[in-house]
Write a structure and sequence with these properties.
about 450 residues, alpha/beta, Rossmann fold, GI Alpha 1, domain 2-like, 6-stranded mixed beta sheet, two-stranded antiparallel ribbon, about 10% strand, GTP binding, G-protein beta/gamma-subunit complex binding, metal ion binding
């Protein structure tokens, strides 16, 4: 049975309901969900613009095995593989000039999605893969932004500890003394391992993104000590659904000593994990297999979305980014609104818009690494009660994919991928698949690819 767009997707206030079809559609929805729950992510294929189940049994491999092996096909529900012969044929066509970049035609790619869904990281990856990466000067310019990200990460954790578990904080004694006593097995100190004085020094410290000053080594040492406590890391895992935990927190805090060094220059890995809020429209041109690409990244916060209209003309491809890990987070702009629900609402407005009636849409279910880590500690069913797959990563991903396919009332072709935008090799494989399958059709329709 195909996953046709429903007029009444479960628990999604953004989709218009139809009383006339409610009873019939609810029965169809339930049968579809049951099938999804019983199959693996590898058993989904693409057919006539709808996601359908593949035939026969499929072996379900772990997420970690799949990512480690670079086997993104099993993590791409809805994208049929392109054969090696087809890949060679397209590459040959490009080399022989059948796809001609020597004119002013280009493929216009629009990156859409809510804030912090990974759009800007995709642009950074395109720069790494197709524009020789970041220059030394560009790396240096990111230093204050890396510093600010470190502080934002640790301040969110410290404030959450103060609010949610103040018994981790002691009024006297240094954090170093508490750590030593804790290592020696003094059980009584396990609830009083942090000092207000140290935490206040962290909270009071500020950096300016327009300054070239070094990171304060004293503050860096205190951050390192705070993060070294197993109790703090356990708190972050256990309570992450109750406060705003930035996705790169573990990375930033575990690297704080290196980042605070006097001779520190950001690496490309640092830049991929450093957030700079996108305001307005940022465009980036590059070539992929001889095809001129023009990619637009626009701000995902609500206040930025009104600016998208300026990018709608002659769009060849939309990449819509969703952070899988946002299912237990609230909007910064409206703390009563679930972020994943907001993404569903936004996707509804995009996929059913008259502006995109002839546009191919790629759906990036992003931040799979963060999602996999938090799912056992923050159950998906706590936020989406109709989900019943527990902490099975494949079932959870397919449930979220199902929610997005349900709002596709216009019947557009949607090509979903599960992605980890900070992993360059993963994004390289995903974009190779995008090029070989969707982009070829779009180029032919637009006249850029001659047949």
């Amino acid at each position: 049975m195909g996953l046709c767009a429903s007029k009444d997707p479960p628990s999604n206030p953004a989709v218009d309901s139809s009383d006339k079809r409610n009873k019939q559609q609810q029965a169809v929805d339930q049968r579809t969900k049951n099938k999804l729950a019983d199959s693996s992510v590898t058993g989904l294929e693409k057919s006539n613009g709808q996601v359908r189940h593949g035939q026969g049994p499929h072996k379900e491999e772990s997420l970690q095995q799949t990512l480690a092996a670079g086997n993104t096909q099993s993590l791409r529900p809805g994208l049929a593989p392109t054969s090696n012969a087809q890949s060679r044929q397209l590459s040959s066509q490009t080399a022989n000039g059948i796809i001609s970049p020597a004119n002013d035609k280009e493929v216009k790619v629009l990156l859409l999605g809510s804030g912090e869904s990974g759009k800007s990281t995709i642009v950074k990856q395109m720069k790494i893969l197709h524009k020789n990466g970041f220059s030394e000067e560009e790396l240096y310019e990111y230093k204050p932004f890396v510093f600010k990200n470190v502080l934002d990460c640790v301040k969110n954790v410290v404030n959450a500890i103060i609010d949610l578990q103040p018994d981790l904080i002691a009024d006297k004694g240094t954090a170093e003394e508490a750590l030593a006593a804790n290592v020696n097995g003094a059980e009584g100190l396990r609830k009083h391992i942090l000092r207000y004085e140290d935490l206040n020094e962290i909270l009071d410290y500020e950096v300016s993104v327009s300054s070239d000053e070094q990171f304060n080594p004293s503050v860096a040492a205190k951050i390192k000590t705070v993060y070294s406590f197993p109790e703090v890391r356990a708190f972050m895992e256990r309570e992450q659904g109750k406060f705003y935990l930035i996705d790169s927190t573990d990375y930033m805090l575990s690297n704080v000593e290196r980042i605070a060094a006097a001779d520190y220059i950001p690496t490309q890995a640092d830049i991929l994990r450093t957030r700079k809020k996108t305001s307005g429209i940022f465009d980036f041109r590059f070539q992929m297999s001889g095809v001129n690409m023009h990619m637009f990244d626009v701000g995902g916060q609500r206040s930025e979305r009104k600016k998208w209209i300026h990018c709608f003309d002659n769009v060849t491809l939309i990449i819509f980014c969703v952070a899988l890990s946002e299912y237990d987070q609230a909007l910064l702009e409206e703390d009563s609104q679930n972020r994943l629900e907001e993404s569903l609402t936004l996707f509804d407005s995009v996929v059913n818009s008259r502006w995109f009636s002839r546009t191919s849409i790629v759906l990036f279910l992003n931040k799979i690494d963060v999602f996999a880590k938090k799912l056992p500690f923050s159950p998906l069913e706590n936020y989406f009660p109709d989900y019943n797959g527990g902490d099975n990563i494949n079932k959870a991903v397919k449930y979220i994919l199902w929610r997005f396919t349900q709002v596709n009332r216009s019947g557009l072709n949607i090509y979903p991928h599960v992605t980890q935008a900070t992993d360059t090799s993963n994004i390289q494989l995903v974009f190779a698949a995008v090029k070989e399958t969707i982009l070829e059709n779009s180029l032919r329709d637009s006249g850029i690819l001659n047949t």
